[in-house]
Design brief:
The chain is an alpha+beta fold. It is built from 6 helices and 12 strands. The radius of gyration is 21 Å and the shape is globular.
Amino acid sequence: MSSDAEQQTRVSPCTAGYHPVVLCSDGALGAPGRAPFDRIIATCGIDRVPTDWITQLAPAGAILANVSKGIVLLRDTDTTSARAVSGRFLGGAGFMPLRSDSQHYTPRSPVTDVLHATGGPGPNATDTAADATVAGPDMTTTVITHPQLDREFALAAFLTGLLADRSQLVYTHAGADPTGPVNSYRWLHPATGSWARVDLPNPTNQQPGQLTATVRQAGSRRLWDELQPALHAWHRASRPDLTHWGLTVTDTGHHQLWLDEPTATVANLR
């Protein structure tokens, strides 16, 4: 926050008759000098809930935050074994991301960087140029059943942001028409340099019900392999909306993604 914005934040509430305490510091560290808090409301985007927010929460307290692409309400689980918060996502959202030295902030990559890292904006899966651009000793290529992510992009972006923090998922269109059919998805995790690319075929060239896609991935994390179990769980549950997903977070930083019930774990987030 700039000094001008900080001063405005101090002055404006006073003119309306309110006198809040204004702190200018690393938000991921909370405000330990004023804890505990009954409610913590974060008006910034995060991919992981800072542990300091949990330890500074009062018993039976709650945290409302924008995690990945969704708003989640996390309540104190009131367990004696470990401090944790848990709750469902309320809907989709996207706030300006948290910037924190303590959280080793890594900005999301621009779309152009994602496209470059995954083979450029032009070639599709049938072009040898695409393989030459992104090929490396650790790149693998597999053929999968068409994931139809064009109908599920919001959910896919939500899941990818959770599974690989500060990652970026984008898509490209066939040809120059931005409203044309999607022909590829590109997913980049800047912190590790890992990436995944899903190239979709022209459906007119394949038999109905037998659509396939080509997946390329490389890096220390096999991103597509991490995403598939979550997509499979979602399909098995008849593709429910975002409000069926939930998150449990402990004061040690462990994040557990679940579907419908906290015991139905889909992924343990890194």
